[in-house]
Amino acid sequence: MAKRGRKPTVDVSDVACPNQRCGEHGQPGQGNIVANGTYQTQTGPARRLRCRSCGEAFCNRTGTVFYDLRTHEEKVLLAFKQLVKGMPLRGVADVLGTKLDTIRSWLTLGAAQSARVNQRLLQELRVSEVELDALWTFVKKKRLRQRATLWRAKRGWGSPSPGRGG
Amino acid sequence: MLAFEVAATEAALAEPLITRTEACLAPVSWPLWTSDGLEAYGTALLARHHVIQSFPRTGRRGRPRRPRLVAHPRLQYGQVVKQRDMRHRVIDVTQRVVFGAPPPEQLLTVYVERHNLSLRQENGRLRRKTLAFSKAVGGLRNQLTLYQAFYNLCRPHRGLRQRTLQSARGNTWRRWRLVTPAMAAGIANHVWSLRGLMTTRIFINH
Predict the structure, then answer these.
(1) Which residue of A lies nearest to B201 if distances are taken between CA atoms?
(2) Neighbours of A156 (CB within 10 A)
């Protein structure tokens, strides 16, 4: 049986229109956002919203990393937490029971969101000292090593060792 | 952690790293720059902050001196140069003022070197002697971008914590207030949660 009385009003005062062509884009509390139903996600019901100014329909996950993800939010957050605590991608995929490509795509989404936050917050800082330093690591070194070995062999600087990947 | 850059050599790293760092700073600020003994940082700083020094005509014979680039009077830059022995152990550290006149005792790279250790500890891709290294530059950039936001906003820094006094029922005891680098810089007023970081809507008007 349906509940009696008026439906609870949805608080949309902190939601802004994500449509860049809208005149009220990014301005919360203008009264242009109205609730427009719900839909089910793994995490629970998600609120569907609509902008009265431009007619754009969106949801409460638009603009976050969880938009268009089919996975439970806690699982995605757990993956991020493991990534920033030093676990490799394959380790996270093993622990959470997901595919490696899924974790990689979540990392791309998380990095894009982090870049937006960094860009917004890290500006016009007043700092007195800046320290610069370099950190050595390597990215896909095998091909470089292969090329170096071939280069050395071409000049007769020693034969390529068979046990070192080429 | 203001900025990072991924490059093949340290010389190729200096210019874009300084550009990215300066994009975060207030336009009128002239911080003291400190680095290791690599010349590329000094060259990049000079290329960005310089004035042209011209020489008056002497009236004597010969070609007049050509104008040259000199560092901006407000630019302060120094290097911390380490000397190592045959076993790569540090045996001496000397401070070298390159531009401006900063006090040599202020020239330090200890904080960034400690930060490098945190980076290696908390990023599987940067850990030494493991197979978790990056297989593509894009993956390394993504990981570092995520870690940069997490480090600045979500991860309390032990060296920045503040001592506060709390009292209840007539007893007073000391407690520590956790502070993140963003809070210390005045751009955040609380420790962000990872969920907060991932669900903050940023509207960038193009």
Answers:
(1) A63
(2) 7
